[in-house]
Amino acid sequence: MANLNWEGIYPAVLTPFDEQYNIDFAMFAKNTEAQIEAGVHGIILAGSLGEASALSQEEKFLLLEKALEIVNGRIPVILNLTENTTKDAVEFAQKAEKLGADGLMVLPPMRYRADDREVVAFFKAIAQSSSLPILVYNNPIDYATYINLDMMEELLEEPTIQAVKESTRDLANITRLKNRFGDRLKILGGVDTICLESLMLGADGLVAGLVDAYPKETMALYNLAKAGEYEKAVELYRWFMPLLELDIHPKLIQYIKLAATYEGICTPFTRAPRLPLVGEEKERIEKLIEDAIAQRPQLTDYNYATI
């Protein structure tokens, strides 16, 4: 198993499809290699950006097996868990461990608005069912469940619960978490449009979206922030921001797949009910991507290779 310390850049990777909407494993391999070449610290499979809602459980495990083959121990491979019942979640975690996953990202129950006690019990049952390290996904904006500090205190009683994907969009929460838990909890920023601020406030890394299309730029931004080169980081961030805003739209999958297609490391196809972009929207997103490419900074200007 690859070393997993919950620090650095973890792409929530795309799931490329071919024109028949089957998983395009050749393109998946190409994107994965681009991520590894840029220096990412791990990948997360079948997350929101990976179209978890459009994948069967069988496909998720097949994706895990293929990813493990491609990665071959170079970086950790983390599988997202989005099951609706505790029984299914426990079985999913156990199978992921058996197949060789290095860790899990776990969402609260998706189709039932559980209360705090139920959410904690759900996460604890998963943690107690396998030895895989767990990243708790805290995203009350999109998934209605807020995991507060007291809930997190209970969750940290489980040694395998080690990190949180912080997607509350409240930057103050990073400081609250640091003040309460210190080094007991690793924090990964989960919102692209506040990724630099998250790092500057002490986040240990990022679960990133636009990294799927721009791995080198994302790594440069991370390396500059970690090196305290904030002036250069802000300059790069300002170029990046129009693209990063694609991550916070309901059509983030169509948008980011299109950006990655421009880079030659994805296909644009999404499974229904997501439909292809058309008309004014398609033209607008294409222009945004093309404008960014036209103004693309030379990473050598940011000493990317030496940081």
How many angstroms does the end-to-end distance come to? Answer: 27 Å
Query: CATH superfamily membership, which one?
Result: Aldolase class I
| Number of helices, counting only DSSP H or I runs of 4 residues or more | 12
- Point out poorly predicted stretches: none
What does this structure look like?
The protein is 45% helix and 11% strand. The chain is an alpha/beta fold. α7 links the parallel β6 and β7 (186-189). The mean pLDDT is 96. It has 12 helices and 8 strands. It has one domain (8-306): TIM Barrel (Alpha-Beta Barrel). Strands 1-8-7-6-5-4-3-2 form an 8-stranded parallel β-sheet.
Highlighted features:
307 residues, alpha/beta, TIM Barrel, globular
Short note summarizing the structure:
With 307 residues, the protein is an alpha/beta fold.
Secondary-structure blueprint of this entry?
Blueprint: E1 8-11, H1 25-38, E2 43-45, H2 57-71, E3 77-81, H3 86-99, E4 103-106, H4 116-129, E5 134-138, H5 140-143, H6 149-155, E6 161-166, H7 172-181, E7 186-189, H8 195-200, E8 205-208, H9 215-226, H10 230-244, H11 252-262, H12 279-294
Parallel strand pairs: 1-8, 2-3, 3-4, 4-5, 5-6, 6-7, 7-8
Helix pairs in contact: 1-2, 2-3, 3-4, 4-6, 9-10
Keywords: Lyase
Pfam families: DHDPS (PF00701)
Protein name: Dihydrodipicolinate synthase family protein
